[in-house]
Design brief:
467 residues; 29 helices; elongated
Amino acid sequence: MEKYVQLREKFQDTDFALDNISSPTDCAKAFGGYLRPAERMDVVLTALEAMVDSSIYDKEAACSVMAVAMEDHAFWISDKTQIITSICKNFGSITTKAARHCLDSLLLILTSQMPAEEVRNLLKSSPPSDSNALDVWEVMLCMPRTLEKVLKELTKGSQLSRLVEGVTEDTCILFLALMAKSEDNRDFFGDLRHLKTYLKHPSVEMHAVVLRGLVKLSETREKARRMQVVLPEIMATLQDASTDVKIKALFVIQNIMGHVKRKEASSIAVRHAEELLPLFVDESSAVQVSSICLYRDMVQAVRWCHWRRMKGMVRRGLVPLLFRMSDENQDVAQAAKRAIVQTANLLCWNDLRELAEKKETWRIVECLLQRDQSRVEEYLQQSQPYLQDSQAALREEAVRFIGLAARYLRDQSEEKLQDIIGALRPLASDTESSVQCLAAQTTLILGTTMKTGTSRRSLRALCCLFC
């Protein structure tokens, strides 16, 4: 690189051992302290220009020099706005993977350190509405802290409409700017296509920012009611890996449910309650509690209308809730108990409600199996994943449930019983002795039943075992 050659020439008459400086990285580290701020800026700008696809200079060397600058960016880069403006100018012409990764890292470092005045300068020199700068802005705004800082400047005074003018609906800038402008959200609600677009964005960070704004907006009755149109997109974010995103989404849905009319809440419950069931086994106890509480509210909402359409679904929710009643986290266990009570109210199963209130879990199992014998096979399938649960109490409950369910199976063929025994067998080496013992006894009884063919009599022993 030319700057590398110039630096060697500049210091060839000094006492430095130039023969030991064999690369642009070594040169930058050795002589950086002897350059004026403007000269150090020139080095960084030259490295940036060398990354352009049409440049004849070594891209790897340019990335090496840039890496040195990033190690101490305050020393090497005296004018962040100038560097970012240059990046905006050349970004579209830099396509090599290493160079783009280098630029992405540099952009995130610079914007995270920018004071408000420099952010304002950058917005003026390279506004989001500039098509050349748009890709750069999307990189810079992928981190929530950087995004929040930039949006504070975007939403000051009359800058908003001027800066975002011309931004297309498939980019994030317009929507996020409007979301941040919490004192005046009328523009945001004027066209909900932006909200749909950004809730479908593949970035988890994008979902977090959008939902952060929706949490605040959904606290207002009028705005929460208008969010019903994008409820499917909000529900879809519950599939994200991020606990933060799921918690925010659940909070927004809870607010919507609380603000809409009774019939609207009932319709929402019928459409979306089943989507909450997978969250009952989420790795986060906070997500479990929030999802179970929301589910309970949805079950309550259909008591006044649509309750017939909901009966089948709430039966599918009973087994997951039953296991969560034995959760070591008391908040989860309490939430599950209340949800079962609410389900029992909907189904008019008074005995189930009373047993849930007393927390008599094994008797709840008996009640469920006796009342819903046509679903025993389905309940067995639902219970088997809990045999691998990280909590010993839930594994023990799963063994107990499966043993009792075997008694009520319509299909008590040798093949079916063998499948159940096969599912229980690994628990013979469980780390908890209580689980080992219960699994061994259950397997023994089922094995005896299979060999003798006296299914009903032997399976009654399972009921005695669990009582």
